């Protein structure tokens, strides 16, 4: 189910009494940070308050985040019970996450498993991928496959085994295939809107309260390259 809130152009992919799932736009921050910019969490609270005419403050729990230039699925909890159960689902890796990434350089293999050890540098908010374990590194594993080749770009489907800082961005860059628009990880130029072509495409999990199987698919942003991938 897809709903559009006219007030703030919020794209709601799923909504019930316990959770709400949003298709995040590039540039949105999920939770407040030092920039002081209005976070997506506040926008969703306003949406709930307006839609249901809720008096007072609205409860909303942040379950996970996406990088600011990244688009796609973000899950929020509408109750404390749902938040604790969703946190456990994510911690126990009982949620299947699929990403789409557009790269300019075709990877060396059609499909592969990438294993690196990532080290985060908080000063420049960047992770470096190493092929062997070193001091202060965390193991990172992802699986990718090429699902479409365009004239100048290549669409990859990526599934994560681990959830490390900038994992997809740093691992793809380390094999010579940085994501389109991702200057930080070696792409040649930025996108005009400061986005990168990394999209949280699909999420599958068991609903924390109803126990039904949930599958969410988020349409990518509309631009020339994404549109070509969808043809």
Topology:
Blueprint: E1 3-5, E2 10-15, E3 19-24, H1 40-52, E4 61-62, E5 71-77, H2 80-91, E6 96-103, E7 111-121, E8 126-130, E9 138-149, E10 154-160, H3 167-174, E11 198-206, E12 213-217, H4 224-230
Parallel strand pairs: 5-11
Antiparallel strand pairs: 1-2, 2-3, 3-5, 4-5, 6-10, 6-11, 7-8, 7-9, 9-10, 11-12
Q: What labels describe this entry?
A:
231 residues, alpha+beta, Pseudouridine synthase, 12-stranded mixed β-sheet, 4 helices
Q: What this model shows, in words?
A:
The chain has one domain: Pseudouridine synthase. It is globular. The mean pLDDT is 93. It is an alpha+beta fold and 231 residues long. A hairpin with a 4-residue loop joins strand 9 and strand 10. Strands 1, 2, 3, 4, 5, 6, 7, 8, 9, 10, 11 and 12 form a twelve-stranded mixed sheet that branches.
Number of domains: 1
Share of residues in helices: 10-25%
In N-to-C order, the SSE pattern is EEEHEEHEEEEEHEEH
Instruction: Please identify which CATH superfamily we are dealing with.
Output: Pseudouridine synthase
Return residue spans where pLDDT drops below 50 for at least 5 consecutive residues: none
CATH architecture verdict: 2-Layer Sandwich
Summarize the structure.
The chain has 231 residues and is an alpha+beta fold.
């Amino acid at each position: 189910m897809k709903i559009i809130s006219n007030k703030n152009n919020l794209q709601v992919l799923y909504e019930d009494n316990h959770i709400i799932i949003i298709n995040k736009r590039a540039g949105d921050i999920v939770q407040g940070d030092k920039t002081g910019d209005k976070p997506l969490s506040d926008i969703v609270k306003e949406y709930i308050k307006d839609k249901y005419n809720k008096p007072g403050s609205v409860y909303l729990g942040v379950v996970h985040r996406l990088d600011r230039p990244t688009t796609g699925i973000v899950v929020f909890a509408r109750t404390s019970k749902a938040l604790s159960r969703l946190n456990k689902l994510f911690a126990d890796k009982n949620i299947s996450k699929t990403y789409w990434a557009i790269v300019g350089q075709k990877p060396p293999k059609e499909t592969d498993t990438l294993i690196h050890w990532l080290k985060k540098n908080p000063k420049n908010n960047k992770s470096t991928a190493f092929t062997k374990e070193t001091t202060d590194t965390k193991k990172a594993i992802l699986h990718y496959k090429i699902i479409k080749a365009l004239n100048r770009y290549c669409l990859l489907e990526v599934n994560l085994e681990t959830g490390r800082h900038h994992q997809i961005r740093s691992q793809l860059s380390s094999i010579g295939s940085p994501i389109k628009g991702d200057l930080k990880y070696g792409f040649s130029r930025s996108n005009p809107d400061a986005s990168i072509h990394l999209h949280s495409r699909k999420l599958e999990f068991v609903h924390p309260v109803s126990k039904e199987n949930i599958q969410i698919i988020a349409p990518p942003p509309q631009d020339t390259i994404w549109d070509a991938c969808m043809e």
